[in-house]
Amino acid sequence: MRAVLRVAREELRFIVRTRSATVGLVLLVLLTLVAALTSAQHRREVASFRERQQAQAQAAFEAQPDRHPHRVVHYGQFIYRPLPALAAFDAGVDAFTGNSMFLEGHRQNTANFGDVRQSSLLVRFGQLTPAFVLQVLAPLMLVFLGYGAIAREQETGTLRALLLQGATRGQLLAGKYLALAVIALVCLLPAVVGLVPVALLPDQAASVALLVLAYAAYLLAWCALVLLVSALSRRGRDALVLLLAAWAVMVLLVPRVAPDAASLAYRLPTRLETEVAIQRDLRQIGDSHDPDDPHFAAFKQQVLQRYGVQRIEDLPVNYKGLVAVEGERLTSGLFDRYAARDAALQQGQNRLVRTFSLLSPTVALRQLSAAVSGTDLAAHQRFLAQAERYRYALVQQLNQLQADAVSLADDSAQDPGADQRKRVSSAHWQQMPAFAFRPADSSERLEAGLPGLTTLMLWWLASLGLLALSARRLGAMR
Hints:
Layout (H helix, E strand, L loop, with lengths): L1 H16 L1 H44 L6 H7 L1 E4 L19 E4 L11 H4 L3 H4 L4 H17 L4 H6 L1 H7 L4 H31 L5 H28 L3 H30 L5 H15 L8 H14 L11 H37 L5 H13 L3 H29 L2 H5 L5 H4 L5 H4 L11 H35 L2
Antiparallel strand pairs: 1-2
Helix pairs in contact: 1-9, 2-6, 2-9, 3-16, 6-9, 6-10, 6-11, 9-10, 10-11, 10-15, 10-20, 11-14, 12-14, 14-16, 15-20
Membrane topology: Multi-pass membrane protein
InterPro entries: ABC2_TM, DUF3526
Organism: Pseudoxanthomonas composti
């Protein structure tokens, strides 16, 4: 063990004496710290903005005067998706998906105002978050600091001298790996410090622990890969070229190609195509505005039979309100069907992207990081699903209010005083509950992150195994 520590100490001394390496490491640590601070501030500002907008939208909805319930249906309601606490660490897909929705009757709108659509194209490359720095820049730093760890010894001839002095192959590799692992943990330290306040929040400690473990495994796997290539290369420049190529492929190319391949395998219809398909299906299931429509003609007979009357004028409730309730039920069922289709396609895309983690640990880490942070596609789909349930309940409550509180005679009247008679008290929508998004709890996020953690651990163990096998080549040079 002493020999391993001695090798590690000498390697760290060499790195410290190399001014460019020291400057690069310090800059990366500072960049991670700046990313943690700026991301936390950005998250607080965005969260505060969305809370204010949500409060204003709710106040505007409740401030409506006495009016016909169906006018409230079309007045609609804006809702905003709150940011999770760990969004400051990994923004995930939040920049690409919308963060607000307009809810109204007869329509299922999409989320709007994603940051990418409102910012420069630099946002598409990656936001300056601790996750981005650790996923992309930290491995590059390890490449520059460790590419010559073994190759340098072979190129200068000092490797033979070290082995002749009694150091074993395993001790030499273990010491070099330990030194590079210390560098990796130094890169990780600022992010860990930034995560401490989040870990103190309710239901966040386990998620933070999993994130730290996953990023540590990722960087330690890169340490093993860097040393492996260095051990198999006779010259430092050869190792550097190979490692830069590996970094470009695994960190930049594969994560970029994977979504494109998934989009080709599981083509997601455009919003326009979906709208056209929905309108086509709506004409087939029934038109509540057409008195001769077969579905609503049958619905009318069912209502009359249920109440035991011959005419809709004799119903104890407003038939127009009942038609609105039935129409919304039909259209919402159709919306749910298309939303489920899109969600299934997106989940298929995610499954295919996950297979690319066999080619790149960065893919596995990105999916794990976003899932545990609550900023992945599943979190966005959760928001859409809860928004639709809230929209449907709100609209149906208003439709039922039209059926119960507005008479058919007043609803159909056109005289000057009819508008006033068909209005209901604003107290009804002032008492309606506000939208409250319920994010996934800690156990659900941990479960979503376990496949990625398993993949990262396999990468780490496989890299260590290959590094151990490479020791035989060092022995052959003895």
